[in-house]
Specification:
This protein has 184 residues and is mainly beta. Strands 1, 5, 6, 7, 8, 9 and 10 form a seven-stranded antiparallel β-sheet that branches. A three-stranded antiparallel β-sheet has the order 3-2-4. The two termini are 24 Å apart.
C-alpha cells in the first residue's frame, strides 16, 4: 500500500528571523491586468562590516531590534503539499505530519488541512498507469499539531489513470483523476 499526503498549508515566517541583525527590506508592487502583485525582497546579515560595505554600494541595511517591525516583515504564503509515503509511520499519522510539515527554524504553520489517501498503484509504487485510492483520514492543523478532523459518514475514493513517475527527486506524468463519494 502506498500513502499519498495532499493538501494546503499556510506558513508564516518567524519574527526571530529578522531580529538583532541588519535588515534591508523592500516591497515591490507590480500592476498587471488590473491586479497588484506584491513581491518581497530582503537582505539580512549579522556582520556589521558586511552591512557597511553593502550600504556603500547602495543598500539600506539597518540594525533591527524592533519586534513590531520584524512582525511586519514576516511573510505568509500558502504551500501545496503532495508527498508519497510507502509505509504507515510507527508514531502515527498525527506525529508524523506534525514533525514533517510542522515548525521549522524559520517558519511555522498557521493553518492547513492534509488528506491521507491509501493507494494501490499498478504496476509499481514509483512508475504506474493506474491507482485506486481510498481516503484514510483528513488532518487539520491546530495549536498542538495535526489532529484528525471529525469525518462525515462518507467514504471518498479516487481513481487515477495515466503514466506517472513519482520519486522523491522527480515527479512528472500525464494523468486524469476521478473522485467520488459513497454515502453509507
Amino acid at each position: 500500500m502506498t500513502y499519498v499526503i495532499e493538501g494546503k498549508l499556510v506558513r508564516e515566517e518567524k519574527p526571530e528571523k529578522y531580529m538583532n541583525r541588519f535588515v534591508d527590506f523592500k516591497l515591490i508592487e507590480d500592476i498587471r491586468g488590473g491586479s497588484t502583485i506584491t513581491k518581497i525582497k530582503y537582505l539580512t546579515t549579522t556582520s556589521e562590516t558586511l552591512a557597511h560595505q553593502l550600504n556603500n554600494k547602495g543598500y539600506n541595511l539597518q540594525w533591527n531590534e524592533d519586534l513590531e517591525r520584524a512582525v511586519d516583515i514576516c511573510a505568509r504564503r500558502e504551500v501545496g503539499v503532495s508527498k508519497t509515503k510507502l509505509f504507515t509511520p510507527r508514531s502515527g499519522w498525527e506525529n508524523y505530519l506534525t514533525q514533517t510539515f510542522g515548525e521549522t527554524e524559520e517558519e511555522r504553520i498557521i493553518d492547513g488541512k492534509l488528506r491521507v489517501w491509501g493507494e494501490t498503484r499498478l504496476p509499481t509504487p514509483w512508475l504506474y498507469v493506474a491507482s485506486f485510492s481510498r481516503l484514510e483520514d483528513v488532518f487539520v492543523f491546530e495549536d498542538v499539531g495535526f489532529v484528525v478532523e471529525s469525518m462525515t459518514q462518507s467514504e471518498y475514493t479516487k481513481f487515477t489513470a495515466g503514466v506517472i513517475f513519482d520519486t522523491p527527486i522527480l515527479n512528472f506524468g500525464v494523468h486524469a483523476s476521478i473522485r467520488s463519494s459513497l454515502h453509507n
